[in-house]
Amino acid sequence: MGLLDSFEKGLERAVNSAFAKTFRSGIQPVEIASALRREADTNAAVVSRDRIITPSDYLVRLSPDDHERMRTLGRALHEELFALMTTHARAQGYSFAGPLHISMEADESLATGIVRVNCSSVESTVDWQGVVEIDGRRHPLTSARTVIGRGGDADITISDAGSSRRHAEILWDGERGMLRDLGSTNGTKVDGQKIRETALTPGTSFTIGRTELTFDVVPVNSEGTAR
């Protein structure tokens, strides 16, 4: 099933028989979904080898008549559009520049049946943050050198008897990561193999003692909060 078919199938749940007569003319909900998808695709930008980012703030402009028709659907239409845009971004490997926001407004310059979508720029809203995830908790890499171990002086402390006080470190320059063992007793493993030093790519998992850690690079919003 194609993606547009998925849009149509999902929107059928919002546009039930009670609203069928509303849409005999003018814009159709699936056309709004398709316009949003095109806008996300057109403005997607490759910002690193592993990251494609697309805007997160979308304004849908409709004729006054079409806007009123869509308004009768209330939250149902908005929730469907939100879910389908999220699914599309996941399928395409996109990351949104911030929390996804979709709004609609009436535009008297537009004729019935016409939809226009505007989005925010990518460059002004996105930054990237290296993180280490342990047991579902993210630890931001806020300096160029982050020491991991069970000692109180480690930047990231893990409670693992199999780890050394200063077990390993991650070097992060804002774009690339490097994992380095600090001469630990039990070693640092990637894919079950002990390493002395290795480059990190987003999604790389490594083991210290019995603790599994994952390195990732995530977008942050304008307030510096990782998503």
Automatic annotation (TrEMBL):
It comes from the Bacteria. Keywords: Phosphoprotein. SUPFAM superfamilies: SMAD/FHA domain. It holds the Pfam family FHA. Residues 146-195 form the FHA domain. This is DUF3662 domain-containing protein. It comes from Microbacterium commune.
